[in-house]
Amino acid sequence: MSGRAGSTDSVDLVVVGSGIIGLGAAYAAVRRGLSVIVVDRADAPVGATIRNFGHLCIGAQTGEARRYADLSRDLWLRLAQDAGFWIRESGTLVAARHADEIAVLEQAAADGGIRMLDADALLRLAPLRRRGLLGGAHIETDLQTDPRTAAAAIVRHLTGLGVDFRFRTAATSVAGRRVETTRGAITTGAVVVAANHDIDQLLPEVAERSGVVRCALDMMRAAVSLRHPLSAPLLTGWSLVRYGRFADGAATAALRDRLHSERPDLAALDLNQMYTQLPDGTLIIGDSHATSTAPEPFQPEAAFTAFLAEAEALFEMPTPRVLERWQGVYAKASKDFLIDTVDEGVLVLAATTGIGMTTGLGLAEENLTAAFGWTTAMEGTP
To answer: Which candidate, 46, 48, 18, 47, places its Cα nearest to that of 164?
Structure first.
């Protein structure tokens, strides 16, 4: 950490926030030879960037989100190689236990990049219970990482490239090309505010204009005994009604109606029933969603009970042993992304539908290039 209370520094770019979008902004700038300071009030990335499944769900996106996701995919693979963290080109599996889920998958598969699987093929890739399983699909472009180790590795890598991380340092105001922090002022050529849901703490007018609130989600990690490893992140019918590529159309409307009528308890949790298995064999299970400007920190046990019950119904395994529970929080708004230029040289970026890990690197790369008139980074630069 550098910088002294009361001092004034000068730099090409200041990034407020060390989540995945802030890291993507720093990475985009340092690859172009610019000097970068990242300020964050915590002592490491501790928000949504580490409190997720590590699932980079590229092939389930459409439109603008798919464009950012495709760009992010290349950046994730490059960073994993250069920064030395675990990533795998696993794709994503989808388990279908009802005919309406098969119908939604077949409709999406017609556009390519999704391979339909019969029950036998899916069982070779995922240790599921055969009873009731009709088949599923494999989304081919997707990636998986471990968010806890990836974020820390990216920070180390960017530090090695010359990025100055000032942790335990809060930005208190952004005005023009000057950022005031709790450790002094920084003058800069450009600013990226990537503070996620805490945008309302620094730039409340932007949060209000964009309708940004907080979405709190419950998740857990469990030790499990599976007959073979889960070869990729696994989605279910509850996931299909959430992701852009599947969420529209009559088939999805029928699926949503059935799920909500059969299981109003799970619908009340706003469930996304999905799973990822980490390299140590533990299983991340989740998740529920609750939206508010200030979500309560209290996590209802009913959500975790439902998570475990649904996991046991889906996987062929003994009762999992819970190791951790946590609450994640991310920015949510009516649009998928918050992209706002609040002043000359000040760009605000956020993913506002919970797909920051999937799209954040590409979101930063594309919008910094456009906003600040940068050229495309040369192949082979750090």
So the answer is: 18
